[in-house]
Amino acid sequence: MKPLTVKKNVLLKYALAATAVYIFYFMIMKTLGYAHIPEFRFLNYFLYFFITYMALYELIRVKKVRMEYLEGMAFTFILGAVSFIGFALFILIYSLFNPLFVEIAGSNMQSAGQLGIWGPACLICAEGLGISSVVSICMMQYFQAFSSKRQLFLFYRRSLLKINHNRFKKELKQIGP
Asked: What CA–CA distance (Å, rounded) separates 109 from 64?
C-alpha cells in the first residue's frame, strides 16, 4: 500500500476513534448530570493527546511510515481538526433535539450564547483547532526525539552504546597514546 493511503487510513481511523471517545465521554457526563459544566470539556484535550500518540505510534512503529517534521505536524493537526469537527457536528445535532442544552451552554459560555444553536458547535470547533495546533507541536517535539540517531538510542540503548563505545575505542587507537 502507498504511504499516502496508509497515512490517510490511520488518520481517519484515529479521528473517528477520537470522535467516538469524545461522544462517549459526553454521554457519561450527561448521564452523571455534569454535561452542563463546560470545564469538563478540557478532558477531551487530554484524550486527544493520547489518541494522537497512539496514531503516531501506529504510523511510525507499526506501519513503518517515515515522516518529516512538518508532515507529522500536519498529520496530527488534521487528525485533531477532523475529530473535533465530527464532535461539533454531534453537538449540533444533539442541540437540535435538546434546546435546553443550548440555553445552558449559552449561559455558561458567553460567546456561544450569541451564536444561538450554532454556539456550542462553533466553540468546540474553535477550541479543538486551537488545541490541535498545540498538541501537534508537542507531539512533533516528541517525534523529533524519536528520529534519526536519537531514535536508535531510545529504542536500542545498549546496542547503540556498545556500537558507539567500540567506535570510540577504534578512534582512540588511531590517534594513539
From this structure: 43
